[in-house]
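Researcher: Quick test of sequence recovery. Tokens follow.
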């Protein structure tokens, strides 16, 4: 798949009809100025990099491309090109756990789904890392969390597949992973701090005492933070259950 994508990109990146289409895209003044002057799709990919301009400008460009990708496959293809280095690097970690397929191909396929599902209005920062994390979750982790299987050798040398015994997820481990992902997705630090305080205190009652507020107030803050974290991390992350409440 990578070879096909490389050939496709080389064929289209300077194609006049492709650039004419890009110049019809709309956004804020800076985005319109960018697309009206590009000489190659590579210029768009470069503009999404963190170091390409003022702080945050790369995310602004990438966020607008993700918005366009909901109805424009070319915009989605530009976003995918931006993600490819990270997808290739991160998917290789799954080589030993993927059977019957190339992990990079799986990650690329999952990336198309992640791009279409992504909400740049709620997840405004670190968009590229968030999209890569979403892709890996969709491609490798989501199904493995629903059903874990292991190959077990038998005396007659045949291989049978049977479900592995259920393993409970430590709430604090799940909480820590959720908070790290939420921070990367741009969730306000105040929301994350509420969750940390409740976890450190051992529950909302003690947290309320330490913060000198009512239990109802701390629970309302917790619930609001949990909603924002779920929105930032997307629908698939919500399938983890409720590690924030459990913790």
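Model:
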């Amino acid at each position: 798949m990578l070879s096909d994508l490389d050939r496709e990109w080389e064929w289209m990146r300077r194609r006049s009809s492709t650039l004419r289409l890009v110049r019809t895209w709309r956004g804020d003044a800076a985005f319109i100025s960018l697309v009206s002057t590009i000489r190659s799709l590579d210029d768009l990919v470069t503009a999404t990099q963190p170091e390409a301009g003022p702080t945050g400008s790369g995310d602004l460009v990438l966020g607008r491309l993700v918005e366009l990708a909901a109805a424009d496959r070319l915009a989605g293809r530009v976003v995918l090109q931006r993600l490819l280095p990270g997808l290739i690097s991160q998917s290789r970690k799954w080589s030993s756990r993927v059977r019957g397929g190339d992990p990079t191909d799986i990650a690329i396929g999952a990336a198309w789904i992640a791009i279409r599902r992504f909400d740049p209005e709620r997840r405004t920062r670190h968009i590229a890392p968030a999209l890569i994390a979403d892709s890996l979750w969709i491609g490798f982790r989501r199904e493995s969390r629903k059903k874990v299987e292991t190959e077990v050798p038998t005396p007659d040398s045949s291989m049978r597949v049977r479900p592995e015994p259920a393993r409970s997820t430590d709430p604090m481990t799940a909480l820590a992973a959720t908070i790290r992902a939420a921070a990367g997705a741009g969730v306000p630090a105040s929301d994350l701090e509420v969750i940390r305080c409740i976890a450190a205190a051992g529950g909302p009652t003690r947290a309320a005492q330490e913060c000198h507020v009512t239990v109802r107030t701390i629970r309302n803050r917790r619930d609001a933070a949990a909603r924002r974290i779920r929105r930032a991390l997307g629908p698939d992350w919500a399938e983890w259950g409720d590690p924030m409440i459990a913790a």
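The CA atoms of residues 70 and 116 lie 6 Å apart.
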